[in-house]
Amino acid sequence: MTTSRKIASAGVLALLAAAIAGCSTSGGSSGGGSRPAPTGVEGAWLDAKGTGLSTFQAGAFQTVATDTGQKLSDGTYILTGANSVQINGTSLIRQSPISFNCLLISANQLNCTSGTNQQFTLTRRSA
Predict the structure, then answer these.
(1) CATH number of the domain enclosing 114
(2) Does residue 71 lie in a domain region?
(3) pLDDT for the residue numbered 6
(4) In this structure, what DSSP letter does residue 25 have?
(5) For residues 60-81, b (16+ Cβ closer than 10 Å) or e, as one string?
(6) What is the CA radius of gyration of the chain?
(7) Residue 31: inside a domain, yes or no?
(8) What is the pLDDT of residues 72-121, one digit of tens each?
(9) What is the pLDDT of residue 126?
(10) Position with higher pLDDT, 25 vs 47
């Protein structure tokens, strides 16, 4: 696989991750002790190949390459249902708009479909 194709794939995965992160709701912190299990999409998500890390926080998402830290995409996300999120943004590699719809399948898995019907899965990154 060529470097540009890897970057493009990472960009798509990053966007998917961002979409999934948008499905969460934020809760208060419990102030010490063990961490509660993550809920919603807030947090960090890895693509299936481990090449893109997408972060969802307070309605914003971004994806970076895990090997270089280069920003691949950024944008916003909104919850469209209890377990669904819509992500819109820009692929910084291709300088073009991107959009994804994602479903939070479990606390650690987000299944996404791009506006061009590409499907990908994001997995919550361990803390």
Answers:
(1) 2.40.128
(2) yes
(3) 47
(4) -
(5) ebbbbbbeeeeebbbbebebee
(6) 14
(7) no
(8) 999 999 999 999 999 999 999 999 999 999 999 999 999 999 999 999 99
(9) 83
(10) 47
Q: Is residue 32 part of a domain?
A: no
What amino acid occupies position 111? Answer: N
The pair of three-digit structure tokens given for residue 117, joined into one six-digit string: 């019907």
Structure tokens at 52: 């893109």
**Number of domains the chain is built from:** 1
Report the alpha-carbon distance of residue 29 to residue 36 in Å, rounded. 9
Rounded distance, CA 49 to CA 61, Å?
19
Joined together, the tokens standing for residue 37 give 């299990």
For residue 57, being part of any structural domain is answered with yes
Separation of CA 58 from chain center: 13
Amino acid at 106: S
Tokens representing 56?
Answer: 């969802």
Domain interval for residue 48: 3-25+38-124
